[in-house]
UniProtKB/TrEMBL annotation, chain A:
It holds the Pfam family Proteasome. It comes from the Eukaryota. It is found in: Cytoplasm; Nucleus. This is Proteasome subunit alpha type. GO terms for cellular component: cytoplasm; nucleus; proteasome core complex, alpha-subunit complex. Residues 250-262 have a biased composition (Low complexity). SMART domains: Proteasome_A_N (SM00948). The keyword Nucleus applies. The keyword Cytoplasm applies. It comes from Wallemia ichthyophaga (strain EXF-994 / CBS 113033). Residues 250-269 are annotated as: Disordered. InterPro entries: Ntn_hydrolases_N, Proteasome_alpha, Proteasome_alpha-type, Proteasome_alpha1, Proteasome_asu_N, Proteasome_sua/b.
UniProtKB/TrEMBL annotation, chain B:
This is Proteasome subunit beta. SUPFAM superfamilies: N-terminal nucleophile aminohydrolases (Ntn hydrolases). Coiled coil: none annotated. It comes from Wallemia ichthyophaga. It is found in: Cytoplasm; Nucleus. The keyword Cell cycle does not apply. One of its GO terms (biological process) is proteolysis involved in protein catabolic process. The lineage of its organism: Eukaryota, Fungi, Dikarya, Basidiomycota, Wallemiomycotina.
Automatic annotation (TrEMBL), chain C:
This is Proteasome subunit beta. Pfam families: Proteasome (PF00227). Component of the proteasome, a multicatalytic proteinase complex which is characterized by its ability to cleave peptides with Arg, Phe, Tyr, Leu, and Glu adjacent to the leaving group at neutral or slightly basic pH. The proteasome has an ATP-dependent proteolytic activity. InterPro entries: Ntn_hydrolases_N, Proteasome_bsu_CS, Proteasome_sua/b, Proteasome_suB-type. Belongs to the peptidase T1B family. Transmembrane segments: none annotated. GO terms for biological process: proteolysis involved in protein catabolic process. GO terms for cellular component: cytoplasm; nucleus; proteasome core complex, beta-subunit complex.
Amino acid sequence: MVFRNSYDSDNTVFSPQGRLHQVEYALEAVRQGSAAVGLRSNTHAILLTLKRSTGELASYQQKAFKIDDHLGIAIAGLTSDARVLSNYMRNQAMSSRLLYGRPIPVNRIVSQIAEKAQLATQQYGRRPYGVGFLVIGQDQTGPHLHEFSPDGNALEYVAMSIGARSQMAKTYLEKEHDKLAECSLDELIHHGLQSLKASLQQSKTLTPLNTSIAIVGPPGPNESGVKSEGSFRILEGDNAKPYIDALGQEEQTQAQTQPTQQRDVTMQE
Amino acid sequence: MNMSNNFTSWGRPFTDAKMDMYGGDVTQRYQLGAQQMTVPDDKFSEGVQKTQQPIVTGTSVIGLKFKDGIMLAADNLASYGSLARFKDIQRLYGVGSNTIIGAAGDMSDFQHVQHQLDTLITDEYCHDDGHSLGPAQIYEYMSTLMYHRRSQLNPLWNAFVVGGVDPKSGESTLAYVDLLGTTYSAPTIGTGYASMIAIPLLRRLVEDRQEPLNKEDALDIIKTCMKVLFYRDARSLNKFQVATITKEGSEISQSMSVDTEWGFAEGIRGYGGQTQ
Amino acid sequence: MSFSPYTQNGGTILAIAGKDFCVVAGDTRQSEGFSIQSRYETKVWRLNEKATIAANGFAADCKQLVKRVKWRLETYKHAHNREMPLKSIARMVQTMLYGKRFFPFYSYVIIGGIDDDGTGAVYGFDPVGSYERETCRAAGAAQSLLQPFLDNQIYFRNQQPADPTNPPIPGTLPLDNVLAIVTDSFTGATERHIEVGDALEMYVVTNSNCDLGALQQITQSATKTDLEQVAREEAEFNGPKSCKTFKLLRQLKKD
């Protein structure tokens, strides 16, 4: 029993080292999920996700979700836990519009799910959520990127990555983060894709099928039909293609003709 | 006797106000206004009361939009029936730094709303995250509150005028919400008596005006209206305050009054000093 | 004397369906008794690219109802990743109205839009949720003035067809005719009803086959004070699907 620890059968009990093992396993569930990257400039916040498919006959699993017109998330970890939390977020976002007539401030909705997640680490009979989020949104104070994790932490970042092999992506972002503020949308997406690509296993590539790009902020030159105030939208398939093509991957053509080879199946989410 | 003491029903068939196109009384057909809300029964439920009429009341509030923002006015009187009970009551109240509300109707309900709004603003302040509630958001909140209370058949017996300018967008809000949850916005607003006496003046002086209205002229218009209201509204006082909200911020003035002329009364039988 | 939770806020609404469009209209006056509260409070709201709702009666109830409908539509969109179809919205509104059968929304509701086969459709409701699909419907303060006029103009009641073997079919009038009928309805109601006036909002829900010539003609011919341009709204309302909604604003008499 390699992973067996003492003090891990009840999340309300500390280990002698002062750790909550159940919470750490929850963080591990996030690390097992496929990678997601988030970046923020002065004008935009974006998310890039690597989608997995469970097999040749399966489609790719959705990784980015809209919460409200100004707000969206990328997930890594248990999809069903993400659904519970995102339903909660959608309700909170709609309530804010109903009661105050304003889009919910990004930091507040993130705090609210963090509060919810923290309770699950402390109450008897509950388990922590097995999912982490990157949250992007735009409000009165500009574009924002937050990370939410199952231990109940929620922090704001200029760039962040979560999920499998996300350390590689993080290394890229750490190198480039001081350039991000002044980036145009296309440059920001380019950095994001570079970073996401860094997290790939060898022989894997980014394709319009396995990559989705979520954006808040004014429309870019490759986007049409986006409202000028800059609402949340997800680019996938053909809409994401120009950006992925711009990455100039020669193996891309090969990957598209042989879809079975680009599978990225390591575990089920 | 079918003649109503409510003058708004004079000159129309007495059932007209409640009749639909089929000649039926809609309030009857759908049992509108009957006691449908089920309140959980307990030992105290018989003793629980809901406001059925206002007690200590303020009279009208007026408001107008001008070039740089919003101006509101309300007098300092709180009446107890026909008794001029409290003559130094403030009926204009600042909510946050860019919104002011004016209240007509029950003054204790108004105080309750003040506390409610204070809590709201304090909570917002404590977030300390750079977000704030502008006039439009405060108005939405008040509308929800008032409609919610009317739906419990436990209304807050007020009519509010909400005025403000959003400091970020510069957009000005002038809006109304009352005990039924009825809402609207308009370039000029008056509650109660002012909706009959001051609104025609305000519409002519503000809405029909060709050139932009500056702050000084707006104040003159407000004073004119408050004077006419004092002349014609028996529950009013020639002591009032004026609130001004612009992009820069908001301000509630000291109490002021206007010069009035009562000489005409001398010649009127039953008005002046004559005994015969 | 006990508290009455209702009042009437005047105004009138109207919707007419065509073959490939639907017009939903309402005046913008809000009143109570003899007082005009506002000259511009909307009674018509676009719900999605295929549906527009108008609600009239007690304004606070109407606004609350529309808020709830919008909430439900948003939830539906999150859950099913598509817009709720018109007939489903109509059925949903029935249950929402009947759900408050014993403390009703004092709202007369009309929903207009494009149905599943692309035809214009109107659904008319009573305040407790009884509803039916129709070709046209008027409701509100001037319902008793407008509905007979529509019966005559839209349903061709009390008209002798020029060609008895080939009588006109309700719901097939072209857009320019319908817009003219809507405008005339409201100018007429404004003349004869004190609670109607100030301005007229007409939402034109169209499918992709609809000839928009009538709209363009109105936009070009009208002066800016008579009519606001529709182009701005078109851009804003341009949904992902082929259905487009246009908003026309026309001034009415203010006395």
